[in-house]
Amino acid sequence: MIQSMAAGYQVLGDERYREAAEKSATFLLTELSQGDGLLLRTYRAGKSHLNAYLEDYSYFVAGLIQLYEATFNPQWLKEADRLNRIMIEQFWDDVNGGFFFTGKAHESLIVQSKSAHDGATPAGASIAVHNLLRLAKLLNQPDPSFHSGQALNDKARTTLMLYYHQMEAAPSASAQLLCELDFLLSTPKEIAIVGGRDSEETKAATRTIHSRFIPNKVIALLDVTSENAQETKTFIPLLEGKVPRNGKTTIYVCENYACKSPTTELAELEKLLE
Predict the structure, then answer these.
(1) Can you tell me the distance from the alpha carbon of 50 to that of 40, in angstroms, rounded to the nearest whole number?
(2) Beta partners for residue 251, in sequence order
(3) Which of 30, 122, 127, 246 could form a disulfide with 176 if both were Cys (CB 3.0 to 4.6 A apart)?
(4) In this structure, what are the phi and psi dihedrals at residue 272, rounded to the nearest 5 degrees?
(5) Regions of the chain with pLDDT less than 50
(6) What is the C-alpha separation between 162 and 165, in angstroms, rounded?
(7) Is the pTM of this model over 0.85?
(8) How many angstroms separate the CA atoms of 107 and 84, rounded?
(9) How many whole angstroms separate alpha carbon 183 and alpha carbon 201?
């Protein structure tokens, strides 16, 4: 739901969608989070309980990524990164790869199940791959830890390989996995915007980007008016070395961290997005 509302705000610019998405994210982070950072699944009459499952984590992380790309508030991306780390630690199968439906914090089961079959909604494992691929692009840290960009990409690739035969035999039940395979095999656009987050130039640039259907992309903003700009550049490597031109909002369109000439003109941006 957060992902849908954030996407609605991106496309329509209706503040009600942004407010609803941010309110929902804040509620989940406060009312359905435990002291150790783990999530809870249900809430009723002021009481939260039951450990969250893979789909709860993966969908929430996807929503937080979308919310960051809609508002460019780095806090949402930091929460997405934190919960994605917990999701890997709790649900990743260290032996055969892929994600279990239940995590280490759940009760011990005779057999832990894994599934990536889409039903009325995409499977939790499919959305987990969605998150891995996008966070690998946005937070491509060079460190050797299993949370580096390469490590996240490797986990996404391993999961896709695990379900290769499913995608081949039952593509209608593997729609989300196929979308993620397309992301992995294509050259996603990495879009870095440098300017004031609330400036009209920045808003016009984001409207131009969101007016096009570009599913294989990530977007980040360096808010030059923020006192935390340097911290944001450190956290999001895609923004490193990006500077505004002539005091105007400047857009960099990159592929594999190799950027074309930056632009401050919307007409030129449209050409770069083609």
Answers:
(1) 5
(2) 193, 263
(3) 122
(4) -65, -25
(5) 144, 146
(6) 8
(7) yes
(8) 21
(9) 29
